[in-house]
Amino acid sequence: MSRISNLFKNLKEKNEKALIGYLTFGCPSEEATVDLVHNMEKNGLDLIELGIPYSNPVADGEVIRQAAEKALANGFKVRKIFEGIEDIRKKSEIPIVLLTYFNTVFNFGVDRFFEKMRETGADGILIPDLPLEERDEIAEEAKKNGIDIIPLVSRVSHDRIKNIVKDASGFVYCVSILGVTGMRDDIDDDLTDYMKEVSDVTDLPRAIGFGISNGETAKKFKDISEGVIVGSAFVKETLKDIDIEDMKREISIKVKEIKNAINS
User: What letter does residue 183 receive in the DSSP assignment?
Assistant: First the structure.
């Protein structure tokens, strides 16, 4: 059983929901990202998504775009994500999912990319711009290396959800809003029917993401999903010109707030 599957199994047994966090790797630096992951886990984070900086992140809003630009300006290279995973694994068994765009995987070499994921200790991958028609090669390499392919569905996927989650594993990333990533003060729409659409075609855990930035919003989804995903609210802190200890403190406050909200 993968780290991701084991996480959701253990949380279900404890009647708890997963808090999944996102950081852009290399913002404000590679070393800081590793340090932040350890600190977030210590304060209640269950799974970390590490975004690989990309020059044209079509699914991302302004905050994550800025973080990617900062990491690239710092000299980020794809090999550094694997060095970072190795550093995380020296102290932690937290499940790690890479969020990247297909061009990054293709340019690195599909087989080599998944081999490096396995060798360094990554657990899953999410590729927002991967067409269903081109997923077979990715799925083959992922299966060969024991990597979960995380499917991404939206509220307008409807009849396509069944095909999107086919052969996927780990969990389903359920996009809560139409549009790109980013913080919202609130998400007013009722997602109950949408979540049922997903559970009708797969037994994979459902995690809701895009727009969740505080405990109040996250709490709305605890009864209709198995977890929530928070990205921009954490990444925003990494863009601030502050000491790493202050950054860790601010992010840990958010982690605790949201974790408590979804499990109270």
Answer: B
CA distances from 24 to 124, 207, 219 (A): 16, 19, 25
60, 87, 197, 237: the active-site residue: 60
Buried residues in 199-210 as b, exposed as e (16+ CB within 10 A):
eebbebbbbbbb
CA gyration radius, the chain: 17
Instruction: Give me the helix-helix angle, 79-89 and 110-120, nearest 10°.
Output: 20
Here the tokens at position 219 are 């709490």
Which among 180, 132, 175, 124 has a CA at the least distance from the CA of 150? 124
State the Cα–Cα distance between residues 131 and 226, nearest whole angstrom.
26
111-139 pLDDT tens trace: 999 999 999 999 999 999 988 877 888 99
Q: Please answer whether residues 105 and 127 qualify as being in contact, where contact means their C-beta atoms are separated by less than 8 angstroms.
A: yes
Under 8 Å between Cβ of 207 and 126: no
Query: H or E segment at 152?
Result: strand 152-153
Determine phi and psi for 157, rounding to 5 degrees.
Answer: -70, -45
pLDDT at 123: 98
148 is catalytic: no
Query: Which of these is catalytic: 49, 87, 123, 237?
Result: 49
Task: Please tell me whether the overall predicted TM-score, pTM, comes out greater than 0.85 for this model.
Answer: yes
Annotated catalytic residue 129: no
